[in-house]
Amino acid sequence: EKSRILNTDAVREFLATLSYPLYHLDFETFQSAIPLWRGAKSYEQTPFEYSLHIDKGDGSEPEHKEFLPTEFCDPRRALALSLVRDIPKGVCSLAYNAQFEKGVLKRLAELFPDLSEHLIDIHDNMKDLMEPFAKRDFYDWRQNGSYSIKKIQPILAPSIDDGYKAMASRGEISNGGEAMNAFPEFAKMNSEQIAKKRKELLAYCGLDTLAMVKVLEGLKELVK
After folding, report:
1. pLDDT single digits (tens) 147-171
2. Which residues have a Cβ under 8 Å from the Cβ of 198 and sit 6 or more positions away?
3. Got the DSSP string for 82-114?
4. What is the mean pLDDT of the chain?
5. Beta strands in 31-184 (DSSP E)
6. How many CB atoms lie within 10 A of CB 140?
7. Which domains does the chain have, with CATH numbers?
8. CA–CA separation, 95 and 21 (whole Å)
9. Do residues 208 and 51 make contact, with C-beta atoms less than 8 angstroms apart?
10. What whole-number distance in Å separates Cα of residue 88 and Cα of residue 125?
11. What global pTM score does this model have?
């Protein structure tokens, strides 16, 4: 049966916890069996890229910021510095499955004591867009039991529906696994190949945070 659950009060309660400007954040990370840099651990999630959509909440287009090195290198310090420039202290940020982003922020705070206060501030002010879906305050039969953003986006944010599908059909990066493998491959590429792969990575990660912006708008529409 094609059914839908919507717990309007619970969704409204969740929306009330968010404040604007709202910073939609997504990291891409990779893992290495052998620690490549000082202070790195085996198989830990090393962030090399982020996308940030800043929604001012006034109906204007969200502002987009991003970080991704132009070569294979230790990206951690440069990424952390860029992040504390882009996200001020005390603002509300949002991730989808925020435990992951929070883990990355905590680890960066351990590695860089001079940035740790600011990084922990971002960590402490982060909310999780996955919450209403994980709690099934919204559930649509088309999700097939999953609440990954890739399943939610076509239902609540069909305006960007061709995004991931179009990337996949062009043979470009269209999922997290491919993104994870792409950055270490920079080491073996020439500058032209890097530029092409980098463009794909930026488009993919950018779509992840745009999907969050649009899913949140869709959620608001439902409980107006």
Report:
1. 998 889 999 998 887 788 888 889 9
2. 68, 70, 186
3. HHHHHS-TT-EEEESSHHHHHHHHHHHHHH-HH
4. 93
5. 46-55, 63-67, 92-95, 126-128, 138-140
6. 17
7. 4-222 (3.30.420.10)
8. 14
9. yes
10. 11
11. 0.94
